[in-house]
Amino acid sequence: MRTALCLILGLAAAPLHPQAGVVGGTAPASPRELPGTVDTEFSQVKIVFQPPAPPYPPLAKIARIQGTVVVELLVGTDGIPVSARAIEGPVQLRATAEGYAMAWKFAPFLKDGAPQNFRFKLAMPFKLRDTALREGVLQLRLEAAETPLDGKRIAGMARGTLYSVGVAPVDLAKADPAKADSVGLDLRVTRLGEGDAYLCEARLRVSRLQDLMLASNTPGQPQQVWNRRAALVQRGAADLEEALAVLTREVCTVHYVNARPGEDLTLRYAAPADATRVVVQPRVLALPAAPAGKAGSAVKVRIHLDERGRPRRAQLITGPPELEEAALAYAMAVTCEPLKVDGAAKPGLLVIDVPFGGK
Q1: What is the CA angle 237-240-245, rounded to 5?
Q2: Strands 114-116 and 226-235
Q3: What is the pLDDT of residues 29-87, one digit of tens each?
């Protein structure tokens, strides 16, 4: 069967131009059947509207995943897609391919002069247009006294994270100061009180290597220095390496994958839908020492719950920097009913706004 062959370019949207192609294998049944559906080929279909290429899926871009996704498209008598299902191709690319296919419009498919429901396949190759890695000189500093963290393992994690976002770590002596990035990564772990909770922070400073000594940007001039930060509280020293890996991945992804030139981004999450119900929550916090005007503020925090409904990690999303540490400590005191799936307790996620009262 001949199918549509569409090129999706990853780093910038581009018009797609179908070509004939061949996809082997037998297609599963369509996810939704319509009366009198006719199976046809792309060459027999008339396109009324072809949407521009969608953005490359961010996680697939980070992992440098490429490949062809085959989508089975079911179209109604009016030429509007009814359903789209990816039947072949990398899992990380399928949702984007399905959504893209649903945006097409076609002329009614006629048989004996009457419009018919029809079904055919689209083969969509996903290809990153620029797979070349940029160079970066990594300067890593780890402050983690009285923890079991291994500095060599943390350094290996940091280098691997840079590769995953398209940056090849190079030695200072081999780097071109005008082209290579200076990547300063400060990781800090601080024990909170006498318990088993640790505040973990990641600070990323990026500039061209030739601008390494710049402390800040010059007002009215193009941005030359970027600073990113992420923080969380982790319960238990055994998972501190994982916590630092999460933070390192986030600050590097924000800068090298999600950010646009000249833009400093705040890490944000969409609150997940979950069945967790808060049953114990600390009293409203008194506002800690902070600049004037912060009374009544709130900090949004993402909480990772264990099977018992107790926080194992609290991760900063947004809020005033002066209130972050207090908000994370507050979140670690929240207790929830266990999240159960088919009667079994499971880890869960919870997003809360940590309230701060006035003095």
Answers
A1: 170
A2: unpaired
A3: 334 567 788 999 887 888 888 888 788 887 887 777 888 899 999 999 999 999 999 99
